[in-house]
Amino acid sequence: MLPSLILIGFIYIGPLLYTIFLSSTDWNGISRSFNFVGFNNFIGIFKNKDFLLPLSNTFIFAIATLIFQNLIALVFAVLLNENFRGRNVFRTIFFMPVVITTVAIGWIWRLIFNPFYGPIAYVGKFFGIGFLTDIRWLADSRIVLYSIILVNIWQWFGWNMVIYLAGLQAIPEELYEASNIDGASFFAKFRYITIPLLIPAITINLIMTTIGGLRIFDLPFIMTGGGPGHASETFVMKIIRSTFRDNRVGFGAALSVILVILIFIISIIQNRYLTRAEESVE
Amino acid sequence: MISTSLRTEQAFNSNPVSLPESINFNNFIRVFKLANIPAAMANSLIITAFSVLGQIFFGSLAAYALTKMNLKKSNVYLSMYLFPIVFSIQMVILPVFVIFKYLNLIDTHLGVILIYIATGLPISVFILAKFLKTVPNSLCEAAQIEGASHFQIYYKIILPVIKAPIAAIAVINGLSVWNDFFVPFMFFTSGKIKTLPLGIYLFNQDHFIKWTYVSADILMTVFPLIIAYILLQKYVIKGVMEGSLKG
User: Looking at the domain assignment, is residue A223 inside a domain?
Assistant: First the structure.
């Protein structure tokens, strides 16, 4: 009786599995006219080159968030690990953006970045800091991607921070005390005790941030819709656009396959590297 | 940073300047009606509730079956559950859309709920299974000797035991479903059904010149969640922390 209940559980996995199969059937050309296009979609992608910009945008996004989000989160986690009054208040505040829907955050920051109505420009005008009034956060194609990265980090660093906090609090106090007796400096303690014992938390955070970064869609879509031009278009955006707007279903499907393979490979590499690090700690 | 959300409230009254002149509630009322926030909220509630319930129900069943029932190859199945964590709905959106179109599930609550259950299961099962492994088998064995069926064991023993991880999972998953934009955006194509995030997007599309309206809309949408968060934040953060430790 219960085995049949497990089967129900599998049926929900079914969508995920079927999707993998289906996305490989784009080789049969899921297009309106059902031509057997074979590999042409993939060849078309590589010939076309207009997937390069979304791809590089996505990579830049993923790498930048990976590095800076985690760094900032780690710093704050270490700071909040000390017991001081009101530290829970800070913890709550820093985590709050995680809880707010990305759509709302995207719009709020659109307002903040707005060169006419936004607070940043207002501050610039008030203090006469020309840089702040002139900068076009979202309209300048050179910096738009980084503006979005900034917002993303603002939203999510609390999440990573909390995970680091959990890891930090799991480190036994005696280790630090023992090292104090040996006269260890702050940096030495950090390097030899904190970091090695944090590796599980680091692993989770790195993997989550990477995967999240590679499949980013909501924030850039809300903030700029991919603009100006295509400057902030991400890979997933391109998939959606090709499939639903341009009606190039086979193309979009092929792109999806590439994305899946990409994320898969990157995850495996990350996983291998990080579990090796974990084992060396033991 | 929090002050920025306060600013949006002040921006209601005077357009360019970020300081309020007088508190003006008319904007709130007008936007409330225009954006049909109650309907959007109801939809979000329904979808979130059923999705999370489904995840918990099927997830706990699967976790129990995989850890306590001594099936052959249960380890293989367990690692199969790990596999989809790497995937996210964005990657498989296209084929899912095609399947759903065929099954007439686009634009329905059920379709979206199914997606959320499917995407939430891997992590739920993973965490629950890990937790269940730490529960001593003797409990179940004792019950089996007394002649309890698997279902009874599940109901009377397992469920009470896993209350804590279920709470954590419910909170985390519930949060992500409530705030999700992508799935409703893709699957509620007619614009008749809206969830809160989708509502913000659609409303602001039409009104984005009027920052006052936009700010009112965002604030009202986000408000209930912030209240809930402030009240429950201990549990939310705790849930994340404990979930990550298990992971």
Answer: yes
Structural domain boundaries in chain B: 2-9+24-246
Q: Which residue of B has its CA nearest to A267?
A: B86
* Both tokens assigned to A116: 């006419």
In a domain, A218, yes or no: yes
Please tell me the predicted confidence (pLDDT) of residue A28: 43
**Which residues touch A128 (CB under 8 Å, ≥6 apart)?**
none
ipTM above 0.90, yes or no: no
pLDDT at A75: 83
For residue B16, which residues of chain A lie inside 8 Å, CB to CB?
116-117
pLDDT tens for residues A71-117?
Answer: 888 888 888 777 777 777 778 778 888 888 888 888 888 877 777 76
d(CA A183, nearest CA chain B) in Å = 31
- How far is C-alpha A70 from the chain's CA centre? 11
Give the structural domain span for A179.
48-281
The answer, for A168 touching chain B at a CB cutoff of 8 Å, is no
Output the average pLDDT for chain A: 72
Q: What architecture (CATH level 2) is domain B2-9+24-246? A: Orthogonal Bundle (1.10)
The pLDDT value recorded for residue B222 is 74
What is residue A82's predicted lDDT score, i.e. its pLDDT? 74
Q: Which two tokens stand for residue A112?
A: 């903040």
Inter-chain touch B125–A95, beta carbons under 8 Å: no
Contact A222 B181 (CB under 8 A): yes
Nearest CA of chain B to the CA of A220: how many Å?
Answer: 12
Residue A100 C-alpha, separation from nearest chain B C-alpha, in angstroms: 7
Half-sphere exposure of B85 (CA within 13 A, CB side): 19
